C-alpha cells in the first residue's frame, strides 16, 4: 500500500527528473544525456576476439536510460501463456504489417489492447513492431515519397493513439538490401528516405513515444547495397534505440555449421559468416551510433543442421553441411517467403523450451553438448545433426559484454521460447542491475 510520503517522494523525484531532463536539453528523456562524443571516447570495445571481457569499468548511467534495459519480443502467433513482467522493462508486440498503402494489418487489435493494459498495470512499456522478415515488402516505396510517408506516418500515429502504445519498433529487413525476402522493394535511396521517415514520425507521435528499430549486424546499407561505413549523424537523434539482431548469423543456408548467435568469431570463417555480436557492435559504433543506443539482440532458440559426417566434441561444430534443410523442433513448420514461386523450407529453429525438455544440455535423448570457445556458445550433436544454441552460460557472457561495452541493454527473440521456469530470462537479469 502506498503511503502519503511515498506519493510525495514520487512527486519530488518526478519534478527533479523533469528538471534534470530539461536542463540537459534532452529530447528523449529515456536516453542517457551523455554526449555522443563522450560515449565514443569512453567506451572502448575489446581488442581481442577470443575472450569475454572481464572489465566492467564503464561509467554508470546516471539518467533513467536504465529503465529500458531488457526488452522482449512477443509474437502474436505464439503468445507466452504468462509474461513475467517483473523480469522485463519493455515488451514488443509483433508484427503489424504495412500494406502498399501504409495501412497496418495482420495483427490482433484486441489482443494488443489487452497486452498494453497488462503492461501498464505492471508499470511497463509496450511497443508495437512494424514489418518483420515477411512484412518488409513495401517499406521502400512507403518511405520513398512525401505523400506515401505522410500516409504511413499517419497510420502509425493512429495506432499509437488507438492502442495507447509507449513505443514503436520499426523492423525493416532491410533497407536497400538483397539479403531480405526476394520480392522486397529496394531503392538506392532507402536509407536516406528511412531517416526522413523516422524524423517525420517523431514529429507526429505523441511527445515521449520511443522510436527504435530492429537492425542487421551491419549498419544500414548505402546506395550501393554495402553497409554504411558512416551513417548520417542525424540517425542517432532520430532513433532512441538500435536493436541489433545478433542471431540467424549462420544456419542451414551455409556451407558449414556455424553458430546461430556468435559473441565472437575466429578464423574458421570459411563457409560461415564472419560476423558476431562483437563485430556488429563495433560496426555500428564506427558508423557513428553511440554505444548506449545499441541493444544486443539474443535468441531464445537455436538452429539445427545436417552434416555430411557426424560432429563430435573433438571435431568441433564447424563441419560441412550436406545441404538438406531438416526440421528443427516440434514447433518448426515449413514456410515460404511471401513471393511468387517461393519454396517452402524448414527453418531448422529449435526453441530453448524444446532443448531444455529433451535434456540436450545434460546429454540426454542421444545428444551431447559441448562448448564452442570461438563463439562463446554451446553446440550439441546427435549422429549427423548439429545444433547451435544459447544457454544461460552464453547469455550471461552476452550480458557481460553488453555491460562492459556500455550498451543500452539487451533485446530477446522471443519470450514464449523460454521454459516454464524462465531459465533464459533469469540468465539475462544481470543487464538490469547496474
Ligand atoms: C556432455 O558431453 C560432453 C562431451 O563428451 C562433455 O564434455 C560434457 O561435460 C557432458 N555434459 C554433461 C552435463 O554431462
From TrEMBL:
Q: Report the InterPro entries cross-referenced here.
A: Chitinase_II/V-like_cat (IPR011583), Chitinase_insertion_sf (IPR029070), GH (IPR017853), Glyco_hydro18_cat (IPR001223), Glycosyl_Hydrlase_18 (IPR050314)
- List the PROSITE patterns hit by this protein, alphabetically: GH18_2 (PS51910), PROKAR_LIPOPROTEIN (PS51257)
- Asked if Signal is a keyword of the record, the answer is yes
Example GO molecular function = chitinase activity
List, alphabetically, the SUPFAM superfamilies matched. Answer: (Trans)glycosidases, Chitinase insertion domain
| Pfam families in alphabetical order | Glyco_hydro_18 (PF00704)
Q: Where is the secretion signal located?
A: 1-25
Presence of keyword Signal: yes
Q: Which residues form the GH18 domain?
A: 68-434
Per the UniProt entry, what are the Gene Ontology biological process annotations, in alphabetical order?
Answer: carbohydrate metabolic process; chitin catabolic process
Q: Which UniProt keywords apply?
A: Signal
Gene Ontology cellular component terms for the protein in this record? extracellular region
**Under which name does UniProt file this protein?**
GH18 domain-containing protein
* Native species: Circinella minor
